[in-house]
Amino acid sequence: MNTERERLSAQFINQSFVRKLDEGRVKEAADEGSRFIRSKLRQESFAREILQPIELSPDEIDRDEHTDQPKKIIEKEPDSTATFVTFKGSGQRTFFRGPRYSVFFGKVESQHFMKSKFELLTYQNDIRKILTDNSVKDMADVEDQKFIETIEAALDDAGSTLDKRSSDGAASIDGDNVTSFGGVEFLPLADSAVGANLTGNLGATQFTGEQLLNGNNFVARAAERDAGGATEISGSKFDLGAQAPLSKELIAQLFQAMTAKKLPIGKMLMSKTTFMEALKFDYNDVGNDIVSRHYDNGLEGEDKLFGVPVITTIKNDIIPDNVIYLFAPENYLGNFFLLQDATLFIKQEADMIEFWSYSSPGIGIGNTKGVIKLSGFKSVGA
User: Fold this and answer.
1) DSSP secondary-structure letter at 62?
2) CB 216 within 8 Å of CB 198
């Protein structure tokens, strides 16, 4: 009975959709499809879960002095200090200058699809799903890919540490253990293992306090200089040691790295495969009630890890299975603006209907310290 009602409802929607096209109400049909796309895009894109998109009106857009490209200028809060004074004294007089950053926009567009309206009438399922399913997934993938590219650029900008053993930051001495180089933090290596085979010679499974304070990009492996090494960082080559397994200590150090920078903890982002590693934590790590819940229910409906909200994705081509990102809350991180949200455009000539979707997003990271990355750990099969 329920199935029959759903089928009749879909047929009614389809007939109504095609009738609008026949009567020349193409914009009305396109608006209906656009609303459907936007609701699905919010579910498909993890970038929209980390930064809430805000659609801008034309009078909120700023002009660029060099090009015709639109942008949005964001003002950051200026730093300030406090001082102790006597009742008859006064605080230090300071002239402040508010720093700013710009968010630029691009265009995301799906493939163009064509179909005869007579063929559309044969579908028993909702036409809006048929029109939007492929385009929504593709557009969400592009948004997420550009978001991660922006995050990686922010990590490159945040990283400024050099090898403490070299005054100029160069890495030219083979066999020299390196813990910080080119903005990347590596696990310390045991003193007895320096110059030896790195495999299995992890000196610790935790980073140092100095690394947590200064670093944003952490690799759960030891590193050693090698002119013929397979890994290149900032123009220098390294050999990397064994991968440390994902552990509660490493996850806790992500939180410590964020709080060391005096920033609150927002959300974590990882692949579903990585999140499933939580099933391997025993009750001493996460508590007996959580282990029992995972045993009974798996990870369905689970959205936190150690009390921190977690966004998971199956897009392991964008988020590898051995990478975790930790973000500060949105107001400490950046902005996601839309010149135009996802829109379905329909073009009809005789019985042939051409349709595609497009949007114009802009993502900006105003605080590069508000992103912490952990990678290089042994995830699957650890």
Assistant:
1) B
2) no
- Residue 374 DSSP label: E
Short-list 242, 227, 222, CA closest to 178: 222
User: What are the residues facing 102 on neighbouring strands?
Assistant: 73
Query: What φ, ψ does residue 92 adopt, rounded to 5°?
Result: -65, 135
Enter the tokens of residue 271. Answer: 């692949």
Query: How far from 49 is each of 34, 43, 333, CA to CA, in Å?
Result: 20, 8, 13
Q: What's at 130, amino acid-wise?
A: I
CA angle 56, 58, 63 (to 5 degrees): 100
CB 198 within 8 A of CB 189: yes
Residue with tokens 């385009």: 135
φ and ψ of 178, to 5 deg: -125, 130
pLDDT tens, residue by residue, 91-140: 455 554 557 888 888 888 888 888 787 877 776 666 666 666 667 778 88
Task: Return the closest-CA partner of residue 371 out of 81, 51, 98.
Answer: 51
CA dist., res. 216 & res. 232, Å (int): 18
